Amino acid sequence: xxxxxxxxxxxxxxxxxxxxxxxxxxxxxxxxxxxxxxxxxxxxxxxxxxxxxxxxxxxxxxxxxxxxxxxxxxxxxxxxxxxxxxxxxxxxxxxxxxxxxx
Length: 102
Hints:
By secondary structure, the protein is an alpha+beta fold. The protein has helices at residues 16-31, 55-64, 85-98, and strands at 2-9, 35-40, 46-51, 71-78. 8% of the residues are buried.
């Protein structure tokens, strides 16, 4: 499963040592394939597309991050482009027929 994981800085800034540990942790996850990609925001924080097996595994990954309690999280499961398109189209056809449009 893939998740878009966004972290934004919290109220308290990390120490330089915590910042270094976080950068190392992120680079390791990028290098080992846990993250498909990793991008930062100009104002701080950033997002990744993470590969994990479950919601619980996503939480474990986040909790392992050195700045876990110092950032605000937004985590969303994502699909590959086109995945589910046939299902959505079929539901649109069904809905259109239900309102008399087809």
